[in-house]
Write a structure and sequence with these properties.
11 helices, FAD/NAD-bd_sf, FAD/NAD(P)-binding domain, 36% helix, globular, alpha+beta, flavoprotein, oxidoreductase
């Protein structure tokens, strides 16, 4: 193939979204985009009880609307009409309602497999070349870009390399890009659960003495569970019988959704806040979890990455320079710096505040939830941050 102008390493949700955001402008400019991804998406969408899902903020819906794929995504999206935030064993509670923000929903829960299929089907093969399944073995800086060596022996050069290959990026490490890690000493248990009552579009953020817990509405009477526990406790719960697991979950959540009746496959993920010390270099951008990986409880990680994608595409297409121009990449990072700082700080502080069982902190956050409920402007500001609109007009 001819030398691509932009090579996106990692064709997951972030990488595919970037290719989609760039393709119309790239076609007008005669740019070629290469998308390198180890795992090819399936030809058909096959719903699964255990499918992993993402919570898309309302701000992410707006981005995908501009990219022309929201109508397709919405076919299998469950709207979040209400988020109830509470502290176990205390009276403090606040409710965020879509109608209070004059919006159709606060966000949406969509299976990752469906998002991926919609994105890949929307890519224009006249602009975006796929190398899939394929993997980049080495990434080497050259004077006017980067050289990629693929696992099949092919060697390619590009003007801009975008590293979107995940939080454990070996290529990021090979380039000497250091990361800051904050180890939470917690593990997230991820599973889908069913209840005997419908969720009615309600999501729950529940803070327990051991760590935060979230339930997000899925189609039918299912919810996606993210349950944060100390590492040893998470391992015990992962290995527990379904009956024991559901009984302890019921005790932590209560009966807001009735009785829990089924739990799917449980996955455990040790939790670490990761931030790359460098997100741009000449001819290089680090994106997605390779740039910043957040605690999942506030549902901010992918939505922040999608806003990064939107801003990067805007900067590249507005600039008169070739992809890889360092000034353009610095402009992108400057535009996103405040959003990243606020979102990462928001997620980290919520995690720390609601994972601490000290009595004075527990009393303070309980009063904070009450105060939030009694102060509509503060609650609206909180809701806008949660919806990915905190730094956007």
């Amino acid at each position: 193939m001819q030398r691509p102008d932009i090579a996106i390493i990692g064709g997951g949700l972030v990488g595919a979204s970037l290719a989609l955001a760039l393709q119309a402008g790239a076609k007008a400019r005669g740019w070629r985009i290469l998308l390198v991804e180890p795992f090819a998406p399936g030809d058909t969408y096959q719903p699964s009880y255990d499918a992993r899902s993402s919570a898309l903020s309302y701000g992410s819906r707006l981005i995908y609307q501009r990219l022309g794929v929201w109508e397709a995504l919405a076919e299998h999206a469950e709207a979040i009409q209400e988020i109830q935030v509470s502290d176990q064993g205390r009276f403090g509670v606040t409710q965020l309602l879509a109608r209070d923000e004059n919006l159709p929903a606060l966000g949406y829960v969509v299976e990752n497999a469906w998002i991926g299929q919609v994105l890949w089907q929307a890519l224009d093969r006249e602009v975006v070349d796929w190398r899939c399944p394929a993997e980049v073995r080495t990434l080497t800086a050259i004077p006017d870009g980067y050289r990629l060596e693929l696992d099949d022996g092919d060697v390619l050069e590009c003007g801009l390399a975008v590293l979107a290959d995940g939080g454990r990026s070996a290529l990021r490490e090979s380039l000497g890009i250091e990361v800051r890690r904050t180890v939470y000493e917690q593990t997230a248990l991820i599973a889908n659960v069913s209840t005997n009552l419908g969720h009615g579009g309600r999501a729950f953020e529940r803070f327990t003495p051991h760590g935060p817990l979230a339930l997000l509405p899925l189609p039918g009477q299912r919810s996606a569970l993210v349950w944060t526990q100390p590492d040893a406790e998470a391992l015990r719960l992962q290995q527990a019988t379904d009956a024991v697991f559901l009984a302890e979950l019921q005790q932590a959540v209560g009966y807001r959704l009735g009785s829990f009746t089924q739990v799917g496959t449980r996955h455990a993920y040790p939790l670490t806040l990761l931030e790359a010390n460098e997100q741009v270099r000449p001819h290089l951008v680090v994106l997605g979890n390779a740039a910043h990986s957040l605690h999942p409880i506030a549902g901010q990680g992918f939505n922040l990455s999608l806003r990064d994608v939107d801003s990067l595409a805007e900067c590249l297409l507005e600039s008169g320079a070739a992809p890889g121009d360092f000034a353009t990449l610095q402009d992108y990072l400057q535009r996103q710096r405040l959003d990243q700082q606020l979102t990462i700080g928001f997620s980290d502080r919520i995690t720390r505040l609601f994972s601490n069982s000290r009595p004075w902190l527990s009393a303070g956050r309980n009063l904070g939830l009450v105060g939030l409920e009694l102060c509509p402007p503060a609650k609206s500001a909180f809701a806008r941050q949660a919806m990915g609109l905190g730094t956007r007009p």
